[in-house]
Backbone:
C-alpha cells in the first residue's frame, strides 16, 4: 500500500486541526489537550503532538495529512513529521498580534523542506481581522524573497477553500499535472 | 448493428418528449456520434431524458424514482427545479451542455448500476469485473486524461453533485472564457477573436472609477441606466451595488454610450455609506476581476504581445475571486518562471481562451507584467515531477475536485 503525506503547519489557532478535519475521509485523530499555558488565551484546547487525517484515494492509496503542534516548544517533532512529505501547507492566523512574525518564523523553520518541495500559504481569520491585507502579505513575502508563493485567503472550515489551497500546492510542485 | 457494437452504445430513453422533439433529439445524438448513443425503450435505458413540462412529466419522474432508483434521470424544464437525485437542464437547451451531461453519464460508472437492473446475472458479473471503462473529468474544455478522471467508486449522490457542479462549471467557463471556438494564439489571422478593446466597455468605466476613488481616497457612485448603481468605497476596498451578476454580466459585453453612466461623489461619508447600506459589500478587486473576465471572454487586451514572457508579480487570491481550475495551473506556471502566452498554451496543453482570460484579469489588477526579452522568447526548461510522482499528484487532485 502506498502512503504519502502532506504537512499542515502554522501558529496556535490558525486552523490546522479544522483544515485537516474537512479534508480527511476518516475521523481525525487529534491530540488536543486542555491548554495550560499562554495558549489558553486563544483556545481552550491545543494540539500537543500532531493532528492526523487521511485522504483515501482510489484503490489502497492514502495521503496522510499531518498537522504540526502549533506551540513552538514542540518544534523538535517538525523534522520528523516532514520526512517524506509531499509539500507544506502553512496557515497564518490573521487575528494574532504579529502575524508577520509567524510568517517569518514558519517559513524559516521549514525552509529546507520548502526548498525541496513546495509551500502554499493560507491566511485564516480574515473575517475577524481584515488587516494586514493579502496585499500586505504579498509585500512582506516579496521583501523576504518569496514573492510568487501561492497565497490565498482561507476559511479553514470551508472545504472548498482548503481544497483550493492544497491544489495550489500540487500545481506548484508541477504545473503540467493535468497534461 | 452488431451485438458487439450494441454493447458499447449508451442507451438513452426519451420520456414525455413530443414526437417533434424526439426526432430532433435523435438527430442531435446521431450527429454527435451514432456509434456512441442509441435511443431505446424505457426498460433498456441507461439514462432517461424526461420532459418534465409534458402532461404526465411528474408521473413519469415518480415512476423512474420508484422503479429505477439507480438509473440517472436528466429532466428538462423551462423552470429551475430542485429535486434530490435528479439532474435538471433548463430549456431552451444548450446543445453543448446537453452533450457534456450525456457524456458524463455515459462514462460514469453509476450507469452500470442502472444497466444491471435489466441484465442477466452473467451479464451483471461481467459489468462488475475489475476492468472498468475510463470515466470523464469533471473539469471542462480539456482533453481527457487518466489523471483528471473521477475516481471509481463514486457514490450516486456524488454523481448528482458532480453533474450539477459540471453544469455550473460549464456555464461559468463560457461566461468567463468564451466558447471552445474562440482565440487561437498561433493563428495571426484570428486577431478579432484574440483581442478586445475595453475603451468603450463598462470595464473601462469601472477601472477609471476605481483608480479615481483610490487616488482621491473618496467614494464614487456610478449611476447606471435603470436606476441601478455601484458605489466604490476606497478605504474599505469594497463596492456596494444593487446590480445582480446576471444583470451586470451582459452589460459588460455592450458598448457604453457617452454619458450613459454618471459618476457622483456621495455626500455621505464612507463609514456611513457602509453602515447604512443594506447591500452586501463585495471586494472592489473581485468586482473588477469578474467584470474583466466577462468583458474579455477569453480574449486579450488590444496589442498584448503574445511572445513576451509573462511575469507573475503575485498570486491572485483565487479563493475569493471568480475562478476555474485552469487558472491555478497558469498561476503556478507563471510563478515559477516567466513564460509567454503562446508558450503557456503549449506547455500546459490547454485552450488559449483560459490563458487569455486569466492574463486579462491579472493584467487589469496589476498582478502580471510582460517582460521585454531581446532576441525573442526562449524555450522554458521546466522541472516536472517524475512520472510516478506526477500520477500520484494527479490522483490527489482528482480526489480534491471530486469531493
Residues:
Amino acid at each position: 500500500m502506498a502512503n504519502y503525506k502532506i504537512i499542515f503547519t502554522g501558529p496556535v489557532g490558525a486552523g490546522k486541526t479544522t483544515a485537516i478535519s474537512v479534508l480527511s475521509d476518516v475521523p481525525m485523530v487529534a491530540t488536543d489537550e486542555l491548554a495550560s499555558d499562554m495558549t489558553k488565551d486563544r483556545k481552550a484546547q491545543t494540539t500537543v503532538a500532531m493532528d492526523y487525517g487521511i485522504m483515501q484515494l482510489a484503490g489502497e492509496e492514502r495521503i496522510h495529512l499531518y498537522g504540526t503542534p502549533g506551540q513552538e516548544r514542540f518544534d523538535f517533532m517538525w523534522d520528523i513529521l516532514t520526512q517524506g512529505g509531499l509539500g507544506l501547507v502553512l496557515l497564518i492566523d490573521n487575528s494574532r498580534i504579529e502575524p508577520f512574525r509567524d510568517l517569518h518564523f514558519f517559513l524559516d523553520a521549514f525552509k529546507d523542506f520548502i526548498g525541496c518541495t513546495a509551500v502554499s500559504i493560507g491566511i485564516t481569520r480574515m473575517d475577524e481581522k481584515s488587516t494586514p491585507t493579502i496585499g500586505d502579505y504579498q509585500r512582506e513575502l516579496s521583501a523576504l524573497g518569496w514573492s510568487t508563493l501561492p497565497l490565498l485567503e482561507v476559511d479553514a472550515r470551508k472545504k472548498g477553500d482548503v481544497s483550493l489551497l492544497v491544489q495550489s500546492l500540487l500545481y506548484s510542485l508541477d504545473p503540467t499535472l493535468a497534461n | 448493428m452488431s451485438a458487439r457494437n450494441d454493447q458499447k452504445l449508451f442507451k438513452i430513453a426519451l420520456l414525455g418528449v413530443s414526437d417533434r422533439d424526439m426526432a430532433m433529439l435523435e438527430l442531435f445524438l446521431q450527429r454527435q456520434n451514432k456509434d456512441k448513443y442509441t435511443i431505446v425503450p424505457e426498460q433498456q435505458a441507461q439514462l432517461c431524458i424526461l420532459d418534465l413540462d409534458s402532461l404526465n412529466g411528474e408521473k413519469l419522474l415518480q415512476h423512474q424514482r420508484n422503479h429505477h432508483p439507480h438509473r440517472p434521470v436528466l429532466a428538462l424544464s423551462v423552470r429551475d427545479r430542485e429535486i434530490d437525485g435528479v439532474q435538471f437542464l433548463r430549456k431552451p437547451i444548450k446543445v453543448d451542455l446537453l452533450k457534456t451531461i450525456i457524456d458524463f453519464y455515459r462514462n460514469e460508472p453509476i450507469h452500470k448500476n442502472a444497466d444491471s437492473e435489466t441484465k442477466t446475472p452473467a451479464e451483471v458479473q461481467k459489468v462488475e469485473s475489475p476492468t472498468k471503462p475510463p470515466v470523464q473529468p469533471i473539469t471542462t474544455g480539456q482533453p481527457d486524461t487518466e489523471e483528471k478522471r473521477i475516481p471509481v467508486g463514486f457514490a450516486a449522490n456524488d454523481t448528482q453533485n458532480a453533474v450539477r457542479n459540471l453544469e455550473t462549471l460549464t456555464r461559468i467557463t463560457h461566461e468567463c472564457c468564451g466558447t471552445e471556438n474562440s482565440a487561437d494564439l498561433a493563428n495571426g489571422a484570428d486577431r478579432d477573436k484574440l483581442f478586445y478593446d475595453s475603451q468603450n466597455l463598462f470595464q473601462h468605466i469601472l477601472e477609471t472609477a476605481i483608480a479615481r476613488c483610490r487616488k482621491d481616497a473618496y467614494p464614487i457612485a456610478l449611476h447606471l441606466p435603470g436606476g441601478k448603481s455601484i458605489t466604490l468605497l476606497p478605504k474599505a476596498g469594497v463596492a456596494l451595488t444593487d446590480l445582480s451578476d446576471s444583470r451586470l454580466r451582459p452589460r459588460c459585453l455592450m458598448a457604453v454610450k457617452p454619458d450613459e453612466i454618471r459618476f457622483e461623489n456621495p455626500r455621505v461619508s464612507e463609514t456611513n455609506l457602509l453602515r447604512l447600506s443594506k447591500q452586501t459589500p463585495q471586494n472592489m478587486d473581485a468586482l473588477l476581476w469578474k467584470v474583466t473576465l466577462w468583458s474579455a471572454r477569453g480574449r486579450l487586451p488590444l496589442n498584448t504581445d503574445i511572445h513576451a514572457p509573462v511575469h507573475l508579480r503575485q498570486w491572485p487570491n483565487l479563493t475569493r475571486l471568480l475562478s476555474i481550475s485552469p487558472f491555478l495551473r497558469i498561476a503556478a506556471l507563471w510563478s515559477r518562471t516567466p513564460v509567454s502566452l503562446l508558450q503557456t498554451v503549449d506547455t500546459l496543453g490547454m485552450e488559449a481562451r483560459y490563458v487569455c482570460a486569466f492574463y486579462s484579469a491579472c493584467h487589469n489588477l496589476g498582478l502580471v507584467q510582460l517582460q521585454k526579452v531581446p532576441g525573442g522568447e526562449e524555450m522554458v526548461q521546466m522541472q516536472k515531477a517524475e512520472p510516478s510522482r506526477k500520477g500520484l499528484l494527479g490522483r490527489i487532485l482528482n480526489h480534491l475536485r471530486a469531493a
Remarks:
- The mean pLDDT of chain B is 77.
- The two ends of chain B are 40 Å apart (CA to CA).
